[in-house]
Amino acid sequence: MTAESSASIQQRAKELVAEREKIEAELKALGSVLEGYGIGMTNSLVDLQGFPRSDIDIYAVRNARVQIIRLRADHNELTTRIEKTLHELHAAKRLEGASDEGTRDAPKPFAKINGVAPDSPAWDAGLQREDLVVRIGSINAENHKYLAAVGELVAASEGTELLVTVLREGSTKFLKLTPRKWSGRGLLGYG
């Protein structure tokens, strides 16, 4: 099975967005029908005595409401499909970018893992000795302030998952690290 190109995925995404915009236009038109009667999706269609209101076209209002409900469901489903397609597009662009040698700057590591304590949060996250740290949360080579920013972030993130990007044997790994108290020193367990 061959991977779909980013251009074809992008075209598919554009078609889904156009379809969603068409639904949005229909929803707006149906909303205008309800507004024309001065009624919304939840207003009662009967008067205080329980009789159908004579000031509105009950059939048109009920029909518009049913169509709005159906179109909202279709809109939500299309939004989910667009989201998945955009994820596919970004993944395809990453793969295409990885195959283009020399066209992208390699991630710049700012720290090296010298050791990982067993049963520590770093151990649980999958960090290994010799990993080169490219990013921890929002901290990277440009803003780590001689690693002080890492300490501040870890202290402020106890119990909160942080995304960590490392280079390991020439490949990029994405890990999830949750700083927490454990039997050793600190909140991470690596050095």
Short description:
With 191 residues, this protein is α+β, with helices and mostly antiparallel strands. The protein is built from 4 helices and 5 strands; from the N terminus they run H-H-E-H-E-E-H-E-E.
SSE blueprint and pairings:
Blueprint: H1 6-36, H2 58-99, E1 111-112, H3 121-125, E2 132-136, E3 139-140, H4 148-156, E4 162-168, E5 171-177
Antiparallel strand pairs: 1-2, 2-3, 2-4, 4-5
The separation of the N and C termini measures 43 Å
Q: What letter string, H or E per element, gives the SSE order? A: HHEHEEHEE
**Strand tally, please?**
5
Helix-and-strand structural type: alpha+beta
Radius of gyration computed on alpha carbons: 27 Å
Described by strand count, sense and barrel closure, the largest sheet is: 5 strands, antiparallel
> Low-confidence stretches at least 5 residues in length (pLDDT < 50)?
none
The gross shape turns out to be elongated
How many helical elements? 4
Strand content: 5-15%
Q: What average pLDDT do the residues reach? A: 87
The level of helicity is: 40-55%
Structure explained in plain terms:
With 191 residues, this protein is α+β, with helices and mostly antiparallel strands. It has four helices and five strands; from the N terminus they run ααβαββαββ. Strands 1, 2, 3, 4 and 5 form a five-stranded antiparallel beta sheet that branches. α1 (6-36) runs antiparallel to α2. The radius of gyration is 27 Å and the shape is elongated. The two termini are 43 Å apart.
List descriptors.
alpha+beta, five-stranded antiparallel sheet, 46% helix, single chain
